[in-house]
Amino acid sequence: MHIMEGFLPHPWWEMWFIIAIPFIAYGVYKLTKITKKIPEALPLLALMGAFVFVLSALKLPSVTGSTSHPTGTGLAAVIVGPAITSVLSLIVLIFQALLLAHGGLTTLGANVFSMGIIGPIVAYMIWLTCKKMRLSNSVGIFFAAALGDLLTYIVTSIQLAFVFPTGTGFFNAFLKFSGVFAITQIPLAIGEGILAVMLFDFLAKYKGQLLDKMKVIKLPQSKTVQETAKQ
Amino acid sequence: MKARYYIVLTAVLIALFVTPLLVAPSAEYSGADSAAEAAISDTGYEPWFSPIWEPPSSEIETLLFSLQAAIGALVIGYFVGYERGKRAKT
Known about the structure:
With 231 residues, chain A is mostly helical. In chain A, 74% of the residues lie in helices and 2% in strands. By secondary structure, chain B is mostly helical. Chain B has a domain at 55-90. Helix content of chain B is 71%, strand content 0%. Chain B is built from 3 helices and no strands.
């Protein structure tokens, strides 16, 4: 659930655009680089875009008695990197703003920031941390996808609390908005984590060498090659 | 067993989204964004810009959301089928 059209007054909406634009520009740069360097990664980019497309179209019921949708950006961040994920999110957000009156054009900058920048960056950092802790890939993907999803909505709550302190201050407003967005999101985030693990398992099995080349995972063979090269 | 692993994951997924409907069957299940919209409107705020186009009815909106999901699912299904088929051949 994104910030609705017209719900960020001046100067907030401009500010989020200014913050989001450099990330998008870097994402476009990375996108052109990867298509030149690893052209066989193109279907993977389409797959990640499709994953974001499906998940952000599913409005799911939650224990709070309201509905929201997952983001699908965590898995994309791990596989194609957070920068390219920003571009994928931008495409989905424009689609939803123009055709579904969901989110908005004036709030696009803020929504790209929460869904396409902070969510993916956090997901990617969680993935790296899990890898460092030598947790299994599945565990890493689960936490990256679930927490990246949740973070997106926490950021949305913060963005709204900045603008609408509702008389009782920023923190109370944040609690109010996160009560609406983040609590609703918890079961959805868990669901997204599970779906991401399922798709990742498939990719690891069928596209292991490509993921190895993209430095997402290390295949045992290439590990031994590197080790023998070192000696 | 790999199959059992996927059955368990799928069962958890279904349970996650059926539970709310069982626990709170009479809740409204409107979007979390409309709840936020209501909270903001309570402060007296008037949105300064409205969507340039809105789906004329909730049916059309549902249609477009399903279309979005269908496009995504189509690409995922194509990819998964293509890779499996390729491997089965060799």
